[in-house]
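Changelog note: in this version the structure field was regenerated for every chain. One regenerated record is shown below for reference.
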Amino acid sequence: MGPVSIHIEPADQSDVDRLLQLSDAVAARLYPGEYRKPITGKVLDSAGIEVFVARLKDKAIGCVASFDLGDGVVELKRLIVDPDHQGQGIGRALVCAMLEACRRRDIRAVVLEVGIRNIEARQLYEKLGFRNRDAFGNYQPTPVATFMQYDLVLPIR
């Protein structure tokens, strides 16, 4: 496969939009109806949001965003890996890069919301040490959502 690089990049670019469209397609397949909220790179191009992009050569093959919620908490959103590169550790590498960046910024916890039908993502988060928690911020419990948290006092697995 070759070396994959992961860097924080501008959100408002066609590579990020393409990956976010893949994310929306997965969400549409798993959760048709009212619970989906499509998002674009332009929306992510805001203060307090960082987008980590995995590239193989020049091709963007995955991304994840971190939203600074304040008080030492960051929300992980929109982890997606191009289907042609799934199962190669790219998602894990993206989450670990984000966790390491948070650790350097003295963030104390990373929280996320993941759908109950997104089994692969849930398994990845659990393997990395995320644990179930209650809804946070503006989220309300729904029949299709699970909320998780990673405490950065723990070593990254």
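Spot check on this record: The chain has a mean pLDDT of 91. Helices lie at 14-30, 41-44, 90-104, 119-128.
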